Each structure stands twice: as C-alpha cells, then as structure tokens.
Amino acid sequence: MVDSWVNSAERIGSDLHLELSGGGSRRAALIRALRAAVQDGRLAPGTRLPPYRSLAADLGVARNTVADAYAELVAEGWLTARQGSGTRVAERAAPPPPARVPKRSPSAPARPAYNLVQGQPDAGSFPRAAWLAAARRALTAAPNEAFGPGDPRGRVELRRALAGYLARVRGVRTDPERIVVCSGFAHALRLLFGGPGGGSGGGVLRGPAAVEAYGLGFHRSLLDAAKVRTVPLSLDEHGARVEELADVAGPVRALLLTPAHQFPTGGPLHPARRTAAVDWARTRDGLIVEDDYDGEFRYDREPVGAVQGLDPERVVYVGSVSKSLSPAVRLGWMVLPEHLVDAVVTAKGQREAWASVPDQLTLADLIDSGHYDRHVRRMRQRYRRRRDHLVTALADRAPHITVTGIAAGLHAVLRLPPGTEASAVKAAAWQGVGLEGLSDYRHPAATASMRAPDGLVVGYATPPEHAYAAAVEALCRVLPPSGEGEL
Ligand SMILES: Cc1ncc(COP(=O)(O)O)c(C=O)c1O
Fold first, then answer.
1. Are residues 326 and 440 in the same domain?
2. 216 close to ligand 1 (CB < 6 Angstrom)
3. How far is the centre of ligand 1, averaged over its atoms, from the C-alpha of 216 (Å)?
4. Tens digit of pLDDT for each residue in 114-156?
5. What is the pLDDT of residue 38?
6. Distance in angstroms (rounded) separating the CA atoms of residues 102 and 79
7. pTM, whole model, 2 decimals?
8. CATH number of the CATH domain containing 81
9. For residue 483, is it within any domain?
10. Do 278 and 391 share a domain, yes or no?
C-alpha cells in the first residue's frame, strides 16, 4: 500500500501540486483537480490523502469544502474512506500506465553482459552504511549556517579533513586555505581552462597545454571546448617524455600529467621525469596539473607520492572520490598554488553551485572518523584479488598475452599481437564483453612514433563481485589466439 502523502501519525503532510482553476465553486474545482491527479497518476492507487484540515490550510479553503470534495470522489469511486485508515486513492481508480517502448538514450549505451570497460569502481561496494552514518553525524552536528548559501571554496570541515588526509596518504603539502572543493577532475579542468561550465572569466590558465599522448578523450574534449590546443607528449615505460617540452613550438605553459599511474597505460612517472617536469615549470613559469585519479590504489610497489609535494607553487593537485567511492557522488578537490586560489574561486562564482554542502560535510566526517581509510583499504584488497585473478587466468589461458600497468589502479592493459586490437575489440563486443582498445585513448595529433603497440584496456573493478569470474572467463575466450597477428 502506498503511503506517501502523510506519515502514520498524520502530522506531517507531503506536497501535491493542485491548481483550483476553472469556473464554478471551490468545491467543484477541488474535485476536478483531485480527479485529474488520480487520472494522470500523480496520485497513485493506495495513496493516503491528507487530513481535511491540512489540505484546507494548504489551499486556503474551508475544511468542509475538502470534506465535501472527498465525499463526492468516494461516491464516484475514485477514493475510498475507511475508519482508522483515512481517505485513500481507490486501488483500481488509475488507468494502467501506457505501455512504454524502451528508448535508448544516446548517453546510456546498452550495457554489455560482461562489463570490463574501465572507468568506475564496483558500484555494489559503495559504503552505504558508513555514508549514511557519517551523514547522520555530520548533519546533526552542522551549525545552521551550513544550510545557507555555500562558500565557493567549500566547507572548511572538508578542506581541513582533506588537508590532513592528503598530506598523510599522498604526501601533498597544503593547508585548508589552498584547497578548493569542486565536483571532480572534469570540473577542475573547466575552472582552470574555461569553456562551458567553467564559470566566469574564460579560465585561469592559458593554452596550449601539453598532455600525455594517451589519455581520456573526455578531458581532451573539455579542453577543445575551451579552445585550448593540446600538444601530445610521447610515453614510454617511464611515463611521459617530459624532455620533449623543450622542442614543443609555441608558448606551452601548462602540463597535464597522471604521474602516479599513467592513464591508461599504467606506469608511474619516473622520479627523474617528475623532477624534470617541476624544473620545466620553474624555468618556464609553467604549471603542472596533476590528475591523481586513483592514487590510493597501489598494490605491489612503494606508494608514489604526489608530484605536488615537490613544489606546491608549481602544481595544481586534483583528486576526487570518483574511484575511491563513486563517480556519482561528484566531489573532488583542487590543491592550488597560493597565487591561483583567488582566481579559481572567482571562476567558480559567488556561491557554491556544484558540490552539495551536506555531501561535503558527510565526506569530511567519513574521513575524520577513519571510515574513508577503512573503505579504501577494503577496496584495495578486493581489487588486488581481482587483479591477481585476471593475471592468473591470462597466464593459464592466454600465456602469449602480456598484462601491464597492474601495480596500481583499477584497470590493466593487455598487450596484443600487432594488428589484432580492432578485431579483438569487435570480437569482444560480439560476445557481450565490454572493453576498449588502447588506441581509443590516443591523442588525435599523436605522431607515428608516439603510437603504443596494440592493447586492450580492461577495467577489473567494474563488474559486481559475483559476476567477475564469469567476465574474466568471457574475456579469455575472445582474446586472439597465439600466432595471430602481423609478423
Ligand atoms: C584519467 C582520469 N582522471 C580523472 C578521473 C576522475 O574524473 P572525475 O573526478 O571528473 O569523476 C577519471 C575517471 O574517473 C579518469 O579516468
């Protein structure tokens, strides 16, 4: 039985938009409005209607007008009235909803049977109980002013929690004053470089920007939209070849990197390259934008700290909860050089328009209470097990395929025999295995020498726990057999 109008004590009513329009008496107008609400499904069968007095007060009519209207609709069969259970919409009063032909929206492609597309953590592992408990604690303790218009820098509780957390876990050097809360890396890019959704002033940094030859196309398209030209840098086993910056024509002053775990090829940026990048920024008055998208998920090697720790005045460090909790939460943070704080806050606007304050307070509590660390540790163990499962299965079933980029993160790269990537992606799709080829991530201006060998990007965090083993099985079935490919 639907009981959405009032709670059982019948004290707090929910809202229903009723317009008493048209000619005739108020009673007749109310009957018409209620009948229409039942007919078009706004009032579902079984819904309990508000007591006479509350609806009368809401609509500014006499209590008797409501009582009469209810009685009329009961007589017509639209409503039922029973002692002790109030007035409800009759169970079969509403016509069945029209059959809906499922429509495929362009932004929601069909989900493959075995989803190994990189990009999201296991959605079934979102820490619902810990998040709810943190929200309860945070909202109970929050001062009233927290529910007013938000400060565009973000709540100080969250900025404080982040300053401590990022220093402890990622070696970031900051204080809460240099942190600006945002909705994630994509939002940070918009604030830094302008473009749609980038706030006022056309961005804080100027293009062109140097980027890794392989990266997320979505981020490149945000820069394109901001009219920022991007210049690709080659990648090798040590990460981006920062030395190429010396040969880039034009005034490149920004460098976008994924130093902890190159996206998507998977290696850390070599220490010498980290230093070289910072040296470049110092001598060229440049700025590094550090995308630390999955920095907490490392397995086999010593943690790689943030490049930001080398020079906080030359690096904008950006992180978010998109890999650690969920990309649906839309919370991220920028740790800024001091001289950029005001400009970024100005770009964001006078009032917080992006990151919900209750969510910010909840995340602050989650971090301060230790539950965020606990969740990340638990997920790290789970993803490590998944990665090991993948590596073992491939060693067994496809020993000719090398797996790389697996010391960290939530995805792996499978190196394929030359010339087999496109057919492997097609075969996978045909068998219901969702994944992408490495070339999908290549910068359109990457030269022939920048091209990585054929490969598949496999997101091993994406399937739910119970479906993972079957997804790996399905993957093994679609891999090109040994001996296939160009020689
Ligand atoms: C390379 C890379 N950077 C950053 C992010 C995070 O983006 P956002 O914080 O906008 O969700 C992702 C995806 O989760 C990513 O793949």
1. no
2. yes
3. 8
4. 999 999 999 999 999 999 999 999 999 999 999 998 899 999 9
5. 83
6. 32
7. 0.83
8. 1.10.10.10
9. no
10. no
Instruction: Specify whether 474 is located in the same domain as 387.
Output: yes
Does any ligand 1 atom lie closer than 6 A to the CB of residue 462?
Answer: no
Distance CA 312, CA 288 (A): 10
* Exposure string over 166-201, b if 16+ CB within 10 A, otherwise e: bbebbbbbbebebbbbbbbbbbbbbbbbbbebbbee
**What 3-state class would DSSP assign to 182?**
strand
- Bridge partners (DSSP) of residue 115 are 434
pLDDT in tens, 356-388: 999 999 999 999 999 999 999 999 999 999 999
Query: What band does 9 get if pLDDT is binned at 50, 70 and 90?
Result: very low
For the chain, give the mean pLDDT: 89
Phi, psi of 435, deg, nearest 5? -160, 175
Whether residue 461 sits in one domain with residue 332: no
CB 113 within 8 Å of CB 474: yes
Instruction: Name the DSSP class of 237.
Output: T
Distance CA(413)–CA(266), nearest Å, equals 7
Q: Which residue's alpha carbon is nearest to atom 4 within ligand 1?
A: 293
Q: Report yes or no on 145 lying in a domain.
A: yes
State whether the beta carbon of 291 lies less than 6 angstroms from ligand 1.
yes
Contact residues for 23 (Cβ-Cβ < 8 A; gap 6+):
none
Does 184 sit in the ligand 1 pocket, CB within 6 Å?
yes
Question: Is residue 330 located within the same domain as residue 455?
Answer: no
Residues 6+ apart with CB under 8 A from 326: 120, 121, 123, 126
* Nearest atom within ligand 1 for CA of residue 187: 10
Domain tally for the chain? 3
Identity of the highest mean pLDDT range in 49-63, 93-107, 188-202, 377-391 = 377-391
Task: State the pLDDT at residue 15.
Answer: 65
